[in-house]
Amino acid sequence: MSSHPHAHPDHRPPLRAAHLSILAHPDDDLYFMNPEVLQAIRSGAPTTSIYLTNGESDGRNPHPWEPRDQVPADREAYAKARQNGLLGAYAAMALADRAARWTRTTLRGPHGTVLETCRLERAPHITLVFLNLRQYAPEDPQVRLRTLWTGQAPSVRTIVPTGGAVEAECAYDRDALIDVLAGLLEHFRPTAVRIMDPDPDHQEHNAQFPQRHDYGDHSDHQDHTYAALFSLEAIERHRSSGAARPFTVTSYRGYYNERWPHNLGVYASSCKEHYLNVYGAADGYDCGDPAGSGDYSVGFGARGTGWVQSTTHRYAGGTDWLRRDAGGRLSAFGVLGGEAVMWQETGPGTGQWGGPWRLGGGPLAPQLSVCATPDGRLHVVGLRYAALGAGADAHRRQLVHLAQTEPGGAFGPWRDLGNPADSADRVRQLGAPVAAVDGQGRLHVFARNWGKGVSSRVLEPAGGWSEWIDLRGSQLQEGLSAAVNHDGRIELFAPARDRVAHWVQDEDGPLLRLTPRFKLSTPAGATSSAVQANGRVIALYRKPERAVTLVGRQGDPGGGWPHGPQSRGGRGGYGPVAATALTTSGMEDCALLATRNDFGGVSCAVLTPDGANWADLGLDGIAGGLIGAPSVSTDSLGRGIVGAIGADAHLYLARQTSLAAPVFSPWLRVG
């Protein structure tokens, strides 16, 4: 494989994990990325958070008992108060001591810029970096990140927080901001990057979903969106420099969280709320700085926003990235540095692996979907950032497809599948794709579209792609899944606002149709599905605000779904529940499950008709923690295999040692 022009080996030495987040405002990480930032900090890996603006707004920072209009505006003091609250929250996450000391210094960047860095003295692996850009210019609120990106504003000046290390203003033009971020990426050399959502949902605002701080007809704050776009541009510049280590990128939804079923259980949401209360000095804590001890409006008010109760990845793709090929070898796929990569067993069931091999295709969004056609060839589909334009009409997002030229062989070139949307703004609301192959050998690619329905394209066995097909659906969340039932027809599942939506393929053609009155209840985020050895399809998802696993079962192979879901417990967490059938004798109605849990590790269970016996695999041996959701498969000997991507950009695998129980070997690091 390494000799093929589309599969390049990566011979770099094992990496030490390093986390880096890029935020628009202080508190974006606490609201939208936690508990993952907390888990990164507690892993002991270097953790850096970069804040583009101070979110100083109109400069008023009232306590909960003070009328806002009676508090004098002081943007410099409010900027410093938000920084103070953030330092307290990070110190509490790292040391359980909000008053722990920080060292403040300045860092000179390109284009005459000056940044402020804060390092936690008793936990020096934690660094916060403040660029101190004004959220908007007081004399012209249109001068801000959005207009800096589009070129309408030639530059944005910084603010000098009261009593900070930086003593004078500077200005950033568009290139300066990208260069500074690219320079910080080169300086900190992260293996796990976190950013906000570059392509928020279209949102119709009404009494049910008021405008609040959304920008235009989008479901997020404009600063979140443009901070993410600047981040992606800097990431691409960093990747192209040749200095980057392999790294993952995870994007997080923002105000989206308030409008969809909440996906965190009590423990995780309470944990987020606790550190936001520290940030907001909700208990009246006084750090001794006259500028303020936190963002007082957040204290004891965080839960009311609806943002605390969910942590949502923008690209909630499937869990099918670990698969057996035609020869029985397992292959795993991921996205590192914006390019597709593959790891592979050296032989069926050996437990010995090679890779990663770079497959290109970038710049890609984080999630890939993988399936195999009847001839044994593996197919990979993903979402590409085809263009990040300054103008609204210059953005392009497209689905892309990659296939092996022969079973077990090299991969051919990437193919552009386009986008079902036909306008510049709508192309950005495309979701992560899911692929499946029906019994006739047709390859189907499905994706959530801008209208929150489903669109698909179909590749016929003889070659040739269909045009885009509108499968309808409405008010769908991200996180589709597809299973091929016992008679070769695809069943598609999608999480809707108040139910699981379900499609079944026609008996005589490629078209899928919505099932009326499907009985599965409201999901919190992505669905997943699997076909058991007895031919029955199962659908899995999480219960809102409880995070337990719910399982729906088909009544008969290829038949209806007469019953509602059953709760099968779990260890909290969020994201899709990976599932694969167990094929050993006597386990035809069982499946192996794997999920991300409340503590950022992996929990597994053997699902039987009577329940699920959960056990934690833990994080021992996974450097820096887990990125995204795990995947599961079985090897050529029928043993369950759990795969996870570590924060160090390595693949980790655990092999089942007891076929009837969730008992696994220690994690094996690959590559």
Write a compact overview of the structure shown.
With 671 residues, this protein is an alpha+beta fold. It has 2 domains: 19-305, LmbE-like (Rossmann fold); 322-670, 6 Propeller (Neuraminidase).
Q: How would you explain this protein's 3D organization?
A:
- The chain is α+β, with helices and mostly antiparallel strands.
- The chain has 2 domains: 19-305, Rossmann fold; 322-670, Neuraminidase.
- It has 7 helices and 39 strands.
- The strands form 9 sheets. The protein has a 7-stranded mixed sheet with strand order 4-5-6-3-2-9-10, sandwiched between helices.
- A hairpin with a 6-residue loop joins strand 28 and strand 29.
- The longest helix is centred in the N-terminal third of the chain and has 21 residues, at 75-95.
- The protein starts with 7 loop residues before the first strand and ends with a strand.
- Mean pLDDT is 94; it is low at 1-6 and 8-13.
